[in-house]
Amino acid sequence: MTRKDRQKGMRMSVTQRLAGLRRRARTAIVGTAVMAVCVGAGALVAPAAQAQTSNPYQRGPDPTTQSVEAARGPYAVSQITVGGQFGSYSGGTIYYPTSTADGKFGAVAIAPGFLSFQSSVAWLGPRIASQGFVVMTIDTGTIFDQPAQRGDQLLDALDFLTQRSSVKDRIDPNRLAVAGWSMGGGGSLEAAADRPSLKAAIPMAGWNLNTNWSRLTTPVLVVGVQNDLIAPVGSHSEPFYNSIRSEKAYLELAGGSHFTVTSANTPQAKLMISWLKRFVDNDTRYEQFICPGPSRGFSVSEYRSTCPLS
């Protein structure tokens, strides 16, 4: 091989080595960039995943005005009739989400008023259950039972739901609430006083001669009706609300009568669902419907709450 050929071979070798170095450098740069993108994507995904799992009690899709005002929520609902005497009450109806894919649900017991049966509050059963709760509407021991007795019956119903009912495995026994109409509403306050571990209480056109509930620690949504002559808001719902020191809200339905809350109406259902979601499920997504809450208008004559909630 001549000197010229050797020099040519050396030049080719150097050129090939430089090309190889450039290829390796490009590969390293691309690899570093890909790694950076992956790490960045992971940083973006991680908070989202954490947000989805930070509240283990959150149930259902993100709420909208339409979803909380709808006659039915995202869950299909089944129901069971409970007959006979169970503790202090005389049976009832259990409404529950059919699916178990989302885990256990909170539970709500609802009592009717004086001289009334569970049919007077039945509209709330499937409406609340379809939003992700187990709901039991009860018949009282007698139609003459007073608020304190109805409070005991609500607690007995919750104990039955969580300990002996056929849907007990669907219920989280640590996330329970009560509600009621008229004397049943007064009973819901009695129940909350007797069992401070309750996550929410909702008296609807509540009636109770005791108007001082400053000892309550349970969050309370008081629902009154402007023209209620049986449980006038001035001597029942408003004093209840004013005395409560825990988290609270006051919804007064415009016009109407003592029986307004026994028929399906959107303002009441919307606030009840939002209150239960916020305090039974600790779901802050529903605060938007509680604070600042509904404006005065055709359906609502007054609204007050202890904002902010978080």
Question: Mind describing the biggest β-sheet?
Answer: 9 strands, mixed
Number of helices, counting only DSSP H or I runs of 4 residues or more: 7
CATH topology label of the largest domain = Rossmann fold
Instruction: Write the CATH homologous superfamily of the largest domain.
Output: Alpha/Beta hydrolase fold, catalytic domain
Number of domains: 2
Secondary-structure arrangement, i.e. CATH architecture of the largest domain: 3-Layer(aba) Sandwich
Helix-strand pattern, N to C? HHEEEHEHEHEEHEHE
| Helix coverage percent | 25-40%
- What class would the helix/strand composition place it in? alpha/beta
Verbal overview:
With 310 residues, the chain is an alpha/beta fold. The protein has 2 domains: 1-54; 65-305, Alpha/Beta hydrolase fold, catalytic domain (Rossmann fold, 3-Layer(aba) Sandwich), CATH 3.40.50. 36% of the residues lie in helices and 19% in strands. It is built from 7 helices and 9 strands. It has helices at 3-53, 65-69, 124-129, 147-163, 183-194, 237-243, 266-280, and strands at residues 77-82, 92-97, 105-111, 133-138, 171-181, 200-204, 220-225, 248-253, 300-305. A 9-stranded mixed beta sheet has the order 1-2-4-3-5-6-7-8-9, sandwiched between helices. Helix 4 packs across helix 5 (183-194). The longest helix is centred in the first third of the chain and has 51 residues, at 3-53. The protein starts with a helix and ends in a 5-residue tail after the last strand. Mean pLDDT is 87; it is low at 1-51.
